[in-house]
Write a structure and sequence with these properties.
heterodimer; A: 92 residues; mainly alpha; 3 helices; 68% helix; elongated; B: 608 residues; 2 strands
């Protein structure tokens, strides 16, 4: 009896996982994409000086550079560039 | 045995355990006997049910043996191969996913209104040819196509068919690919806008639930994304509310006048739907598309389940002929038109776009491709199968069937309505009133078609900007111009295709839609053949479907163009000639690439 209860629990777990992957994972993916887009705009604003766009506060945004190194690395890989395209960022 | 009266003891009791072979033989024996019984008037189980079970059995055998052969001998799937999902894992696009979940995603993206509309029209030639093409097409055409594109994409870093074309054939062929896709999307928009318009006018009960679904989906999207609600409850409540809307719609049909300002109501609905598509395609995905997909996907699985259950319980008899040898005047010949009328459900190039665009980036192990690709094609086959059964057996009598299929025009514009009516009949066997049943089914189709409209308008914008890139046309790269161009071209096509019947033009386009869909499949099959040839594998599995599909599309295109010239439909002649030209270009590119490859292999291994 205990075995069947355990089996049922396992089955239920699997069904839940399937449902989650089937229906809620796409939501999460869409949201992650949306967040990525917003973050990209932020990165552009913060480091526009490196692309030659004048930015009066770049002296201050420069402080964030070490914090954003990892994210920047992910960004350039996502954009299909294996190595960092900017001289200022030496992430890899 | 044959002469013995049917006794309750001999009533077959669902011998569907095909795992061991003897019961399969039993199944065939039952099939034979049930047919004999039917002829003698003592019927146990109706023929459509037996044929459906037979088709399901064939699907099982196809998956068990043919896809195994493809997986082991042709594609030689390797469980240790590092798939793009692992190689480029980013948690967003590239994410290893459980194969059942991935199958679910793949199936929900490829299943739509097309595998219902196509078979529903094709039943005009009788149910026999349609059934044969759906079963054989799924097994030997769609299966390898979907499975193969998935495999090719996985082996090419998860790139899409377009990019692989560029690599395998060349950049000129990429232009060809873009143009074919542009036409495909254009026809999809025009055709589906007309399908929805027809359903809205013929089933007024479906108007209200559909338009209520939109704010509902947007509320869910807003709550989840902007307010940070957990996903579960808003989605479930949304789903329940939709069912409430169906009851509401069935009791309060929106009856609109037949003509407004001299234009038929369908014409107005076409404009409204295309405008809706243009606007919806500019909204963020999370706001409308995503929450609605959630609701639609539930309706798809529920609809499929209810329809099959209804078929097995109602046990209707065919009232359509096996082969309609008295087709109404103006009906194009069965061969080759059947093969472009049923595209989705047998073989459809659109699947290749999905399997190489999204599914390939999420495949966990290469061996999962067999289940996701081949079985995904089968899901579509199941939908087409029930569409045939509902239209061929769902009516009360041959007269009612004749009403829908009495003329080619009514069959092509009313085929979907025939499906909805037939399906309502099947569902009524489950004790659900046919008013609710037809509303549910029509809402299901409308929701599919509208989602497709929304997505394909979006894609058309991307394609236009890529065409602008390829041929240096700067304005096309702008989002707004792209949307406006997409909208206007669809309206022109829907209205000018058949000027005597404004707004109905879309259904005249159905064979053209099928043709472009098959052309897309043809392109994918060319790439598959070339890849298999290059790697020294058995390439006939792709080459034979390729030749068949390209041959049938070219032939049916020539027949259609001659028809259009006779009827003086100039716009259709132009579009048809363009598609035929693309077809010729496709064949040429394929031959050139084959020639290049042959000289290369000859150069590498000089004949001894």
């Amino acid at each position: 009896m205990e075995l069947t209860a355990e089996k049922m629990k396992h089955l239920w777990e699997q069904i839940r996982e399937f449902y989650d992957g089937m229906y809620f994972a796409p939501y999460r993916r869409t949201m992650l994409k949306e967040i990525q887009n917003e973050e990209d705009v932020f990165k552009l604003l913060a480091f526009s000086e490196m692309l030659g766009i004048p930015n009066p506060v770049s002296y201050y945004t420069l402080e964030m550079m070490p914090l954003m190194l990892e994210e920047f690395h992910e960004w350039h890989q996502r954009m299909g560039m294996e190595k960092s395209p900017l001289d200022g960022f030496r992430c890899c | 045995m044959k002469n013995s009266p049917p006794s309750p003891l001999r009533t077959p009791s669902f011998p569907l355990t095909i795992r061991n072979k003897p019961s399969l033989i039993k199944l065939l024996a039952y099939f034979y006997h049930s047919d004999c019984n039917r002829l003698q008037g003592g019927m146990a189980v109706s023929t459509p049910v037996w044929l459906t079970l037979g088709a399901l059995g064939l699907f099982y055998l196809g998956y068990r043996f043919y896809s195994k052969f493809l997986a082991e001998k042709v594609f030689r799937l390797d469980p240790d191969f590092q798939t793009p999902a692992h190689q480029f894992r980013d948690g967003v696009d590239y994410l290893p996913t459980n194969k059942f979940v991935l199958w679910g995603h793949h199936f929900s993206s490829v299943a739509g209104a097309a595998p219902i509309v196509g078979p529903a029209i094709a039943v005009i030639w009788g149910w026999g040819p349609a059934l044969l093409w759906v079963v054989l097409g799924t097994l030997f055409f769609a299966g390898i196509h979907d499975f193969g594109t998935l495999w090719a994409s996985v082996r090419n870093k998860g790139k899409s068919v377009g990019v692989i074309t560029n690599r395998v054939i060349g950049s000129r062929a990429k232009g060809l690919f873009l143009l074919i896709i542009f036409f495909l999307l254009l026809l999809v928009n025009a055709v589906f806008a007309v399908v929805i318009a027809n359903l809205f006018t013929q089933f007024p009960a479906s108007v209200l639930p559909y338009w209520l679904q939109i704010p509902l989906a947007m509320t869910i999207g807003y709550l989840v994304y902007k307010r940070g609600f957990p996903l579960f409850w808003p989605s479930i409540v949304g789903l329940l509310l939709l069912f409430a809307f169906i009851f509401l719609g069935a009791s309060a049909p929106v009856n609109l006048p037949e003509t407004i300002a001299g234009m038929p109501m369908t014409g107005w609905w076409v404009i409204v739907m295309l405008l809706y598509g243009a606007i919806a395609s500019r909204l963020p995905v999370w706001l409308l598309l995503q929450p609605r997909d959630y609701i639609n996907s539930h309706m798809l699985f529920l609809g499929l389940g209810v329809l099959y259950l209804g078929l097995f319980i109602t046990q209707p008899e065919f009232n359509a002929p096996f082969l309609n040898d008295q087709v109404p005047e103006g009906t194009p010949p069965l061969v080759p038109l059947l093969f472009v009328t049923i595209a989705c459900g047998a073989i459809s190039g659109f699947h290749g776009l999905v399997s190489s665009g999204t599914s390939s980036k999420q495949l966990d192990k290469e061996t999962d491709a067999r289940f996701v690709g081949y079985f995904g094609a089968m899901g579509e086959g199941l939908l087409a199968l029930i569409a045939i059964m509902a239209t061929a057996a769902g009516f009360a009598g041959i007269n009612q069937w004749q009403e829908h299929y009495g003329a080619w025009e009514t069959a092509s514009s009313g085929g979907t309505a025939a499906f909805v009516t037939g399906a309502g009949q099947l569902i009524s066997g489950l004790g659900i009133s046919s008013a609710i049943g037809t509303t549910f089914i029509s809402i299901m189709i409308v929701a599919f078609a509208a989602t497709t409209l929304d997505t394909s308008m979006r894609l058309q914008r991307f394609i236009l900007s890529e065409i602008g890139e390829q041929y240096h046309l700067a304005p096309l790269k702008n989002r707004n111009t792209g949307t406006v161009v997409a909208f206007l071209s669809c309206v022109v096509l829907a209205f000018l295709a058949d000027p005597s019947n404004p707004g109905q033009g879309g259904m005249v386009l159905w064979p053209l839609f099928g043709t472009t869909n098959q052309l897309t499949a043809g392109l994918s099959l060319i790439i598959l053949t070339l890849l298999l040839w290059k790697w020294g594998r058995q390439y006939l599995v792709a080459l034979v479907p390729l030749i068949f599909v390209v041959g049938m599309t070219a032939w049916s295109m020539v027949i259609s163009i001659m028809d259009y010239i006779e009827q003086g439909k100039t716009l259709l002649v132009v579009v048809g000639v363009m598609i035929l030209a693309l077809n010729g270009w496709l064949v040429l590119e394929g031959l050139l690439a084959a020639n290049r490859q042959r000289s290369k292999t000859l150069g590498q291994n000089p004949p001894a």
